[in-house]
């Protein structure tokens, strides 16, 4: 059986909670120090990611930036998260030599975690929907990880926990620990990096930062940092179709749920995740999937870079915010993220055949972006659909 077709957990060695591990053992402590050193050294080797400008008419007095997280060693925003999760798990004594790390992930987090697992020499198993893009599967396996598929994305959590119990491994559980594993007060997190890179720009404190949510950890880190540093920046979280975050945020329902998974890989969830911190953010937008894909294709036309669908979700919302600022005569800057590269999705978001199969018509949204960039006026037919603000 191939590693990507695992149907049953590995041979049980007993639940992790019953394994007797002496954490004062000299060999374990030496392994732990070396593992932490390797993970921290990865950060030292990686230069900060670039902050790119999206071209807007100069007369508007507004600058739109994209923080290009696709330049991390594993090619996505999730590299930061995976590094933090591994340090958190190691320093808590949860990750042990020779025992697998298991993660529930639709792709990019698993790619990055497979990289760090290989770096410190432990096995890695990704529990993911069967619909995950082939390129992400290839990258997980490239870094030595195994792929364990589920047909229902809502079953990822319990399947991951079961695999950890059966193998004596550690279920990383990004959806619970993402918001607490990262030091949101600074320490070169993504928020601190954005402000450092903007310090010589004409609008060094952005009016808005737009961050999509998968775990919710990035939006929590950015929002907390903004409040901690007493900036006037507001934080917007766009949400794709088939995700419950928008409903849960607008209604205050912590039990909000969706019956199916998001088509925009890496963001949107069928349940309100523990790492999503609704009270920290200022605004949410519900973004049609066709709009996300239209925006990511517009990005390629504007700066010559392909990016994943979640980047399009954020860019669509950022452009709407820019349109509101233009309409109100305000100047300033807006920041959103390039979450991962588009070459992982050539058979999806850049495939007209896939769009037709999904029943997605991006033409009206593409036309709206072109009209706005040419006139400075957001088309009335798409005026603020599915948006909510605090």
UniProtKB/TrEMBL annotation:
Enzyme Commission code(s) on record: 4.4.1.1
Cytoplasm as UniProt keyword: yes
Cofactor (UniProt): pyridoxal 5'-phosphate
Catalytic activity, as annotated: L-cysteine + H2O = hydrogen sulfide + pyruvate + NH4(+) + H(+)
Residues recorded with modification N6-(pyridoxal phosphate)lysine: 78
InterPro entries reported for this sequence: Cds1, Cys_Synth/Cystath_Beta-Synth, TrpB-like_PALP, TrpB-like_PALP_sf
Keyword annotations from UniProtKB, A to Z: Cytoplasm, Lyase, Pyridoxal phosphate
Lyase among keywords: yes
Coiled coil: none
Source taxon at top rank: Bacteria
Pfam families in the record: PALP (PF00291)
Stretches the record annotates as Disordered: 1-20
Family affiliation: Belongs to the cysteine synthase/cystathionine beta-synthase family. Cds1 subfamily.
Function: A cysteine desulfhydrase that generates hydrogen sulfide, H(2)S. The H(2)S produced by this enzyme modulates the balance between respiration and glycolysis, and contributes to redox homeostasis. Probably eliminates toxic levels of Cys (which can induce oxidative stress).
PANTHER family, A to Z: CYSTATHIONINE BETA-SYNTHASE
Name this polypeptide is given: L-cysteine desulfhydrase Cds1
